[in-house]
Amino acid sequence: MIKFFLMVNKQGQTRLSKYFEHVEIHKRTSLEADVIKKCLSRTKDECSFVEYKDFKLVYRQYAALFIVIGVDEAENELAVFELVHNFVEVLDKYFSRVIMFNLDKVHIILDEMILNGCIVETNKSRILAPLLVLDKMAES
């Protein structure tokens, strides 16, 4: 099961966070700081899977953006690693450039892909369908 999803820039600032189980706000801050520090300090030659406390971290870097997903011991790391790439491909397909001004739409994309910590959809067309309907309604 996926516990959390983070998008972080190279400076260590969280750009997007989504938790799939309850974590108190003050614990989220320290958890994110530890996770970011652990992932950003690794070199490109090191594995993208990291053991951390009672779960595993799966991360991937795209230019100046890191995507970090915390999963439990039962989750398949390679499937989550590919989920990250699929997520980035969906973002590339929908957004032309800047996504930081459209975080509400990024959340919709993430909600279409992951439900209650489980991967439910990977088909790019199905993931984007609700957004395209919203865009058509906004034009009308």
Automatic annotation (TrEMBL):
Gene3D superfamilies in UniProt: 3.30.450.60
Location relative to the cell: Endomembrane system
Pfam families recorded: Clat_adaptor_s
Topological type in the membrane: Peripheral membrane protein
Regions annotated as coiled coil: none
Leader sequence segment: none
Domain AP complex mu/sigma subunit: 1-137
Record keywords: Membrane, Protein transport, Transport
Highest taxon of source: Eukaryota
Main location: membrane
Family the entry assigns: Belongs to the adaptor complexes small subunit family.
Protein name: AP complex subunit sigma
Protein's organism: Polyodon spathula
